[in-house]
Amino acid sequence: MRLGRRLPRSFFARPSTEVAPDLLGRVLTRTLADGARLAARLVEVEAYEQGDPASHSYTGRPTARTEVMFGPPGRLYVYFTYGQHFCSNVVTGPDGIGSAVLLRAAEPLDGLEIMAANRGTDDVRLLCSGPARLTQAFGIARAENGTDLVRDPSLNLLSGVPLSPRAIGKSTRVGVTVGGERPWRFFERGSSFVSPGRPWTRASASRARGSRRS
DNA sequence: CAATAGATGTCCT
DNA sequence: GGACATCTATTGG
Asked: Mind listing the pLDDT tens digit for each residue in A80-118?
């Protein structure tokens, strides 16, 4: 399969709501020191904008954690959440504005054995179907925060094959309880690699969003 | 299959 | 202190 060329800086220098659906079908790759390659095709993303109550950049001011999100586009924003997981985002929009796209799920293409070792499971569907899973499968952690995906020799986003508009599903974002009515989650319709256990993910998505924690 | 408890960093909207 | 862009293991039907 042809994975294409690196996406240019201009691709990321747009509003996150525009970049997000355009990221579906694109390919995240990582080349390891020994030459092995990891590759996965993005099938689920979410947009986050400055001023958005659900966004880390809501206040408009960077913190030690969110600094990268406010920087130039095309870089990787990695944050630690729930006390034990890392999640990966691609920084979008102009330098100085805190906007990014959360990489929620992907279809593994290459380096599955390495991903399985990183994840501690052999189940292909569980390798990259979730933001923390995807991040773990690629061995991404705090050290990768701020990596320039446009120029880095190892970690990149390739053009792949973008999806046609009709192949893209939209919904409200997962786990967002504030400002959740924004339909800023984008996913590939019918893909079995989107994050599991979310009923409204599937074609027969009816509105069934209840409280999720006690 | 569904529900739930537990892990516990970072920011406070 | 409380909420959170989550995942896993375990329990119960």
From this structure: 998 889 999 999 999 999 999 999 999 999 999 999 999
**Lookup: nucleotide whose C1' is closest to A196 CA:** C7
The pLDDT tens digits of the residues spanning A119-145 come to: 999 889 899 999 999 999 999 999 999
A78 φ/ψ angles, rounded to the nearest 5 degrees: -110, 130
Q: How many angstroms separate the Cα of A33 from the Cα of each of A13, A27, A36, A38, A40?
A: 30, 19, 7, 12, 18
Q: How far is the CA of A152 from the C1' of B7 (A)?
A: 33
Distance A70 CA to C1 C1' (A): 28
The string of DSSP codes covering A93-128 is SSTTS--EEEEEEEEEEE-HHHHHHHHT---GGGTS
Angle at A77 between CA A90 and CA A52, to 5 degrees: 75
Rg (CA), chain A: 16
Round to a whole number and report the distance in Å from the CA of A84 to the C1' of C7: 9
Rounded to 5, what percent of chain A is helix, strand, coil?
A: 20, 25, 55
C-beta separation of A104 from A130 below 8 A:
yes
